[in-house]
Specification:
By secondary structure, the chain is an all-alpha fold. The chain is built from 4 helices and no strands. The chain is 61% helix and 0% strand.
């Protein structure tokens, strides 16, 4: 089963911003109020993330939601 392009893009950008800020998946999860395994699933495009969780992750990364959706 192929992964949705929007999920791949979002996951890639989450990982990019997380690594740029030198955050572990565990630390990002803590800041966003989600489980660590959820961050990994998002980065691997295995989870269809909700808008509420998109906002939590964007806020934790101190970026705008649209930054996580841009190529």
């Amino acid at each position: 089963m192929s992964k949705e392009p929007i999920l791949l893009l979002f996951g890639h950008n989450v990982q990019k911003y997380r690594k740029t800020q030198e955050l572990s998946q565990e630390k990002l999860a803590e800041l966003a109020g989600v489980h660590r395994t959820y961050i990994g699933m998002i980065e691997r495009a295995e989870k269809n993330i909700t808008l509420c969780n998109m906002e939590k992750i964007a806020m934790a990364l101190k970026v705008q939601i649209q930054d996580l959706l841009q190529q």
